[in-house]
Design goal:
Blueprint: E1 2-6, E2 15-19, E3 29-38, H1 41-48, E4 66-72, H2 76-79, E5 88-91, E6 94-95, H3 101-104, E7 115-116, E8 128-132, E9 136-138, H4 145-150, H5 153-165, E10 173-176, H6 182-193, E11 197-202, H7 205-213, E12 218-221, H8 227-234, E13 240-244, H9 252-257, E14 259-267, H10 280-285, E15 289-292, H11 298-309, E16 317-322, H12 326-334, E17 341-345
Parallel strand pairs: 10-11, 10-13, 11-12, 13-14, 14-15, 16-17
Antiparallel strand pairs: 1-2, 3-4, 3-8, 3-17, 4-5, 5-9, 6-7
Helix pairs in contact: 5-6
């Protein structure tokens, strides 16, 4: 089968196209013939090297994928009678042991042996993939493979951040940092879905305008050195209920200062760096809450996909590249030009 791999950490130049054996599904697994794989910034971090993450080379990147069930492992028909060869399915990239104390409590993304496709194990930049049968779900014919692949990791992450962790409520005001990326756009749609008012930041006026057309009430350029002061003034110096900050070093400190008393900051990443200087006095005096979040549990996977396929929200696909142009696709994602998801067609 065709696949894109890297044999060492580095820039986009380490990505190469190779032929790999087609995997056989183990008991309880399905094999999916992939038709699309969506990119995430996680792909770039894994390729560059994450401290403490040890990979077996060659490594196949990619967390998101959609395709057609190609084969069923032993026992799948008995446990998952709704699955059949030929079904169009999306893949949940979260891999949990289902046996530890967290999995038994239904918190699968806290699993003691938690893994993510494309990060800890080989991912979706390839023609065939085997995963546990519980990790696939059929999607409707009205969705393309590219849309389906684009709608999983980012929406699962955004839903858990806003709904499960931050408990966002109707009428609240939320600031989403860095609109244009997949998670940020998912946050915009989910926040509007629950009746919250959404403000956004971006590096371009064009993205701000696109965000307004999607329901954002107000936006500001984060390249403006006074962007935080403008947000504070726009809030009439009252602050925001919730700030979504997955940027990290560049914005984290200001994001905290922009919260109202009792406000919540939620984060799932640190694209501009993992270290931020924080004035702890803001946290205790305003009684702020800082919430970390990663991926989702199986219940949230069902909730989010059910809502998506019923029409509540739909991912934005910015650009599609063929699999053999994965290097160019990652370079494009790293350039921050996109508004929506970058996807590989396989």
């Amino acid at each position: 089968m065709k696949a894109v791999v890297f044999h060492r950490h580095g820039g986009p130049e380490v990505l190469e196209s190779v032929d790999l054996p087609v995997p056989e599904p183990a008991p309880g697994e399905v094999r999916v013939r992939l038709h699309a794989a969506a990119l995430n910034h996680l792909d770039l971090f894994v390729r560059e090297g994450i401290p403490g993450l040890k990979l077996s080379f060659p490594h196949v990147p990619g967390s998101d994928g959609a395709g057609v069930v190609d084969a069923l492992g032993e026992g799948v028909t008995d446990l998952f009678p709704h699955l059949a060869v030929g079904q169009r399915v999306v893949i949940n990239p979260s891999l949990s042991c289902m046996a530890c104390r967290f999995c038994r409590a239904g918190e699968h993304s806290l699993c003691e042996r938690y893994q993510i496709l494309g990060e800890h194990v080989d991912g979706t930049y390839r023609e065939y993939l085997t995963v546990p049968a519980r990790n696939v779900k059929p999607f409707p014919e009205t969705w393309t493979f590219e849309e389906a692949a684009a709608g999983i990791l980012t929406y699962l992450t955004a839903w858990r951040m806003l709904i499960t962790r931050a408990a966002l409520r109707p009428g609240e005001r939320v600031l989403v940092q860095g609109i244009g990326g997949g998670v940020a756009l998912a946050c915009l749609q989910i926040a509007r879905f629950v009746g919250a008012e959404v403000w956004v930041t971006s590096g371009s006026e064009e993205k701000l305008e696109k965000a307004r057309k999607m329901g954002a009430s107000w936006g500001v350029l984060y390249r403006d050195p006074d962007w935080a002061k403008k947000v504070w003034k726009q809030s009439e110096k009252r602050g925001l209920d919730v700030v979504v900050d997955c940027s990290g070093t560049a914005t984290f400190s200001d994001s905290l200062k922009l919260l109202r008393p009792g406000g919540r900051l939620v984060t799932c990443g640190a694209t501009t760096g993992p270290r931020a200087e924080v004035d702890i006095r803001y946290i205790f005096w305003r009684q702020l809450t800082i919430l970390g979040s990663t991926m989702s549990n199986l219940r949230e996977f069902d909730e989010v996909t059910d809502l998506m396929y019923s029409g509540a929200f739909r991912p934005v696909v910015d650009r599609v590249f063929p699999l053999e142009e994965a290097r160019e696709a990652q370079e494009y994602l790293a350039s921050a030009q996109q508004f929506g998801k970058v996807v590989l067609r396989i």
